[in-house]
Amino acid sequence: MALQLQLVSSSFSLSSPNSRLTLAGVRSLRSIFAGKCFLRGPSRSCDVLSSRRLLKTTTFCVNVEEGEKKVLEAEREEWGKVSAVLFDMDGVLCNSEEPSRRAAVDVFAEMGVDVTVEDFVPFMGTGEANFLGGVASAKGVKGFDVNVAKKRFFEIYLEKYAKPNSGIGFPGALELITQCKDKGLKVAVASSADRIKVDANLAAAGLPPEMFDAIVSADAFEKLKPAPDIFIAASKTLNVPSSECVVIEDALAGLQAAKAANMRCIVVTTTLSEETLSTAGPSLIRKDIGNITLDDIVSGGSSPNSM
Question: Which stretches are annotated as coiled coil (predicted)?
């Protein structure tokens, strides 16, 4: 007996070689049987390892045999339970991406270099050294000293944008963290920002550092996101396997780091568009942290993939 699911979507794509199908507005499905995914109505067959883009259609049916259904369920279960949530800071807990870019523009203005906030977008989520240094390199700034620039950046940022309790926290952040803790989940901040900025942002957002089981920042790492080092260190600090961690991110670098660490990742569209983020295969996409539910987290991002 075949199980038929009627799914409606304008498009869908493969997000990884093990074939997570991310569909706008419907539940994600996974298929690993024989390396094939069979689509019915119109009739199509495609090798999931050979193409990351399948088709565009208005309505289609997925025909899954009962035995194949069990494979889908088993593949989902291989992740294991969710025991910890790793929160990125800028763009997730704190509405600080735009202020960070404005502070960086001020730094370059003091050097007599004309830049815009958009120049920094490709380097978001990669740490202040890359954030500032990447733009300096792109603009051909001579004699750029990243350490001097970072020092000035923090001075401007803390003075103008991250004063204690200044309200840069996203609505719903405190509530979601509290719900996770009440559920018995461990929670951590895992950020590519330096600790001085992490502490300032948490204070500005009204999020007490002691509410987190761990705070992992860029200071101790040579490789920042998209490398997985920060997330792996956070999972070890929490004593939780990577497979039981769910990451919440806003940047492509963070999403890539989470996947490299073998962690599920829920992304928010506070910084980048849903279309841009979906190309990297997140587990789930939400508008912002206030739209993420405890069920989204406990299910590992397997809730309907819709904002």
Answer: none
Provide the mean pLDDT of the chain.
79
pLDDT digits (tens, 9 = 90+) for 130-156: 999 999 999 999 999 999 999 999 999
Give 297's contacts (C-beta < 8 A, 6+ positions apart): 82, 85, 176, 180, 185, 246, 266
Catalytic hit among 88, 194, 213, 288: 88
CA distances from 21 to 25, 89, 126, 294 (A): 12, 28, 27, 23
Q: Is the pLDDT of residue 16 over 50?
A: no
Concerning whether 194 is annotated as a catalytic residue, the answer is no
Domains of the chain, residue spans: 2-77, 84-95+167-298, 97-160
Residues 90, 194, 229, 250: which is the catalytic one? 90
- Is 88 an annotated catalytic residue? yes
CB 45 within 8 A of CB 35: no
Render the chain in DSSP notation, one character per residue: -EEEEEEE-S-EEE-STT-EEEETTS--EE--GGGEEEEETTTEEEETTT-SEEE--SEEEEEEEHHHHHHHHHHHHTT----EEEE-TBTTTBS-HHHHHHHHHHHHHHTT----GGGGGGGTTS-HHHHHHHHHHHTT-TT--HHHHHHHHHHHHHHHT--TT-S-BPTTHHHHHHHHHHTT-EEEEE-SS-HHHHHHHHHHHT--GGGSSEEE-GGG-SS-TTSSHHHHHHHHHHT--GGGEEEEESSHHHHHHHHHTT-EEEEETTSS-HHHHHTT--SEEESSGGG--HHHHHTTT-S----
